[in-house]
Amino acid sequence: MTEIPKDHPRYESLIAREKVTAGVKMGITSIQGLISQGRGESFDYLIGERSTKSALYAERAAVAALLLAKNPVISVNGNVAALAPEKVVALADVTGAKLEVNLFHRTETRVHLIIEQLRANGASEVLGKNPDASLELSHARRLVESRGIYSADVVLVPLEDGDRCEKLVEMGKTVITIDLNPLSRTSRMATISIVDNLTRALENMIKLGVELKKERKEELVKLITTYDNKRALSEAISEIQEYLKTMTVELEY
Amino acid sequence: MTEIPKDHPRYESLIAREKVTAGVKMGITSIQGLISQGRGESFDYLIGERSTKSALYAERAAVAALLLAKNPVISVNGNVAALAPEKVVALADVTGAKLEVNLFHRTETRVHLIIEQLRANGASEVLGKNPDASLELSHARRLVESRGIYSADVVLVPLEDGDRCEKLVEMGKTVITIDLNPLSRTSRMATISIVDNLTRALENMIKLGVELKKERKEELVKLITTYDNKRALSEAISEIQEYLKTMTVELEY
């Protein structure tokens, strides 16, 4: 990796860029994953590269849903494996969720490399290698495991595409997404849409997991029943608008 | 390239993505160029993937500046060569500008491949292979040709980084940029900041070149002296805000 000084104003963003580029070189991330990373960078920039109030609101509800689930599953793709392998493993540990590799541009080599990457980061079991069930989708991204995503009641699908997200919602699952674009089809389709950077979102969710595990079940149920996803998305857009307003003043445009 | 149906709502954007990916495979575009493409996609999405009024205002002034210049030069990097080689060549023809390859991640192979790509698209001469002058910058991106960018009075630097843009402005040049982020350092530094998608901007500029060539010199001078870059950037931000407002209503957030 290129050396990036820790005091660089955009340190985190540059490190993430290096990680995804390294993921491509290692064969974990598809080349299209770099374009997705770039799209995310722009939206992150527009919310000021911080976890906003609405993001934390969605993250809290998401963790409650994972903790209450009977069969929670975290779906892992090439960008997630490159950016935050240790964090998805930690979140799975805290919430008792399974990990399943699921790729848009699936190759058996990539599935294998990602499983190895997650194992190297402490995962004991990772599903996805022997898919024995199918979502109603074309291409290899339909492939899932029956005891994983297929039968899950709550699925966390970070950096997911809209089609797949929609299909999982149609199957009656609670679908949690992490996507920096509050207008994307993914964000619009999901049950709980987290508009936040992947690394920050996972860090917040791990902390929230530790905290909420101590709560009574009724408290967790309340977090979910009072959660309003349209409100979260609408606030995410307002936060971008606020940021643009502030910048306009600052730059004297 | 993957087959993309012409009636896909985001056809142009997907084609551009394929072109940059092909550029990487051909060795013309650096892997980092994919992340830049993604960043651009997000901002393009936020202005509704169309040339806005403020973009056309900046493009008109930019073409006037190129037509009035003594030594206009168009700088070409790996993303430009992958996305619109035939269009930079056409714009150079219409405005009488020279073409010079200038790369952030410079390798002699990439310089050679980009020159060949431009020649295959009709360019007669392309500078950049034998840099005999230097900008005050670190890294290979300082390298320029004395009869090209170094001595140019007007430079078009599409998809440029902020440092280099700033340096060219400091040297007293009229610097025209094409950058979809109206808040970027590049947009803030440039003399004329075009906030538009590269392909659309070049298409507009070629048409404007044909049209403005017929104008009297005084008319072109007037286009430049009345041009206000802060106004263009401020309007570009307003256009994003308008788009977000419209989308909020449409999605019933």
Automatic annotation (TrEMBL), chains A, B:
ATP binds at R17, R39, D179, L180, N181, R185, T186, N197, L198. The keyword Calcium does not apply. Homodimer. NCBIfam families: phpantohe_syn_Arch (NF041123), PRK13761.1 (NF010324). PANTHER family: 4-PHOSPHOPANTOATE--BETA-ALANINE LIGASE. Catalyzes the condensation of (R)-4-phosphopantoate and beta-alanine to 4'-phosphopantothenate in the CoA biosynthesis pathway. This is 4-phosphopantoate--beta-alanine ligase. It comes from Methanosarcina barkeri 3.
